[in-house]
Design goal:
Layout: E1 3-5, E2 24-25, E3 32-33, H1 43-47, E4 53-55
Amino acid sequence: MAYVISDNCTMCGSCAPVCPVDAISEGDPKFVIDPDKCVDCGACADECPVNAIAPA
């Protein structure tokens, strides 16, 4: 099950570079995770400074 980014996202961008499969992209008004690419590793959730990323 893919991770999702909540509305708490501040668009800091710290999550995207740590994704090993480039599943995270800049959206509007928050970053988004492509559920078809996400491998459920959790690296992005560990990196998020506002805890806006969680398993779906």
